[in-house]
Amino acid sequence: MKKYFVIILCLALFVALTTGCNVSDKKDMQNDQSGSVNQEVKQPDSSSESSDTEYKLPLTTEKITLTYFQPVDIKKIGVHTNDYNELLQFKLFEENTGVHIEFMHPLAGQEDQQFNLIVASNQRPDMMFKRDWSKIAGGPQKLVDNGVFMNLKESFEKYSPHLRQFLDEHPGIDKQIKTDEGIYYCYPYIRYDQDLKNFMGYQGRADWLEKLKIAPPQTIAEWENALQLVMETDLDGDGDPTNEIPLIAGLPSEDFTIYGFAGAWGFEPHLYVNKNGKAAFGALQPEYKEYLKTMARWYEKGYIAQDFISMDVQQRQAGVMNGTVAFWYEGLGQGMDAFIVALGGDPNIIAAFNYPTLNEHSDTPMFFDGTPSEFGDIGTAITTNTKYPELCAKWLNYWYTPEGHEIVNFGQEGVTFNWIDGYPKYVEEIANNPDLPVSVALGKYTLGCSDGPFFHDRHCRNQRMLKWDQHVEAGSMWKKADVSGMMPFVSISSDESMEAADIQNEVITYVDEMTLQFILGIRDIDAEFDTFQNTIKGMDIERLLEIYDRALERYAER
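Below the sequence we write its predicted structure tokens.
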């Protein structure tokens, strides 16, 4: 019989549904909090049987195919395949559940557009996966009210015992994944019991800092000095001091590199929660002018890649891997790990930096690009078009079972991982691939490198994102940031949802366009800043803030 991987997450989730772990084993697993990839994790007795009499495998003995809209993670999985059915995970899922999945993979870069087109049509698949559910015009509550997606309350209670058990035992997480009206709209992606709270941040060439004889920058003044020194120095030793790029970035609307510096002034350019717990808008703050002038000055002096407005994520990453970039903003797995591999495999070549502060190192950095809760605003909905609502619910629940949890996070024992002293250790092809970072190597087999309707196991994440000492140092540094300003995934009421979406879309589009023009020098900041802010105020921004204040109050009362 297969050995099921049960850590503290699984204990909480499956205590009423599985047997075989004795009391001392449970205590050992519950005490496993260090996050070290060498930490022992107890396995349950391999002879244990499920005590659940309602949930049986296979889920069906008929030949049933379910259709599933699911974007391909192009950075981690798309390098191997453009069809998720080729992944080991879904081959095992089909073998164990009896359900075949026909994936609908949208074109890269068109995920949101195709999602919206399908939602508006009457040709919806059985299930649809989405990131950023809270950003849908009208919100997920509206889509349920309009009969596009099912209210999953009954599906959770009747056909998803493993997920339901976990939510019953974790009311704080249960609160996050439902609307103010109490409906469930997706099977959630949960980062539960994680050592990494923030896994995105500023990074750079540690070897170049040594040549410049400067410490990692933190204040805005230190950043400006470091960027200037990069401009003046032949850091790659090719005799040309002008071909190094101090800071690489993308469009502010698509990439947080430039917007991240606004945190030094205590806000992000869009919606955030101020120190009083109220909804606020960053571009309306008086300090936004100083932030804009700083970014415009950096661009004018060549500190920011001059062609950043035309760069996509692959081009930005290629610049780092080619050894021409000093500083960037990225994650740990596909970011730092990939860059270490590309730059020769020496982890000491890259360092992570704290989020920027305005004046003092003693200031607590503010961060606005993470996940403010265990729920990542990511998950899979069941459409009302499906002929198999019960089967969809049972298949999605399989992701949260002990067996499904093990497969999605680690793959298959003996193929992608092995139990070593009670720890599910990835095989060498994944853990120490000379050509691929761990996340990409894992992406050949499972979605554990990415996201989906599952619990992301911290022992998967730790092996992916804490491979090097530099990863551990970055995670320890970044998690100390103040994230209280991040807007939680609040639910806008149905009668206000379209109004809020219209205002927000108009305002954010305007702010992003004007911010870009100010930074590029197309617009004069001193001459046009007041008009810029007055225009925002004339877009019913106060009404938007009022709506979000009420949503914050309801969220607190859930």
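Residues 494-520 form the longest helix (27 residues).
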